[in-house]
Structures
1.
Amino acid sequence: MSHQLGLFAADSRTVIVDDDTGTIVYVPAVFSLQESDLLFSRLQEEIPWRADRRWMYDREVDVPRLVAHYEAAPFPPALEEIRRRVEPYTGVQIERIGLNFYRDERDSVAWHNDRIADYGTAPTIALASFGAARRMLLRTKPSAPRKRTARIDLEPGSLLLMQGPSQVFWEHTIPKERRALGPRISVALRRKSD
């Protein structure tokens, strides 16, 4: 089964999956376009972005995006604003925030799930998007009961919520694009399993 959610879809929740493999829900327009533009500018200017290197493919490589991490509250003011808006959608108190700055269409993130060793088997992960819309692909892992895929255009001001065992059974990616795209900031708000 494959899902395709269109760019600038109606302002309502779209349940991508809600079963024994977890819950994944897309919510557009959690932040208005004006709020999204303002928060993008603030995050771009106020967050101490850094370039990272990681061990992948049997060698150390540049991470194709800029990153920042906050392990505990209080968070910087812009992130506190985002956290306060997002928490009612999650039903939990956010503990950690990670950020990715995709500078253009060449920046990406490979297929992955959030680390189960760090967040447990049923964490809450809420991805808030600011800046240019980017496509996210999702697919089930071989351990899932059945094979499924989904594609979502993450619009500015939107939220993608992943809960329950979604990180055990699903993985996701933001692939490189061939068409020119503007910058995007992803704010990943997380709470590990209790």
2.
Amino acid sequence: MVILTDEPLDPSPLRAAVARPGAGAILLFEGTTRDSFEGRRVRGLEYEAYLPLARAELRRILDELEAEHPELRLAVAHRLGPVPVGEVSVLVACSAPHRDLAYVASRAAIDRLKARVPIFKKERYDDDTAAWRANAESPSGDS
């Protein structure tokens, strides 16, 4: 399951998508908008994406991880548009037979998403300025 939406994210469909009898571990990662970056007060974030490419790359990442570990099930959702402080911008759900693999796979999924998926983030600050930010894992190295 891959979801890209302007609406607030609900973890329930992702959890349901990965749940199965053989899963001894189900993890849900929630990435939320924090209120500061490098000492500046952040009012919120705005996300933009080229939807066909972002959706395809997210699917490719999940397929890769599930091919590497066939016992995994993964689902991801990313919010687009404005995301106020404290709200969820990304969800990764993962199930595996055991917790160790679930933790490793969940981390790999979010790291690959940040490095490869063309989703762009603008930080809006309390002083009414804004700045586009690349992910720390992206080739540009900006956080």
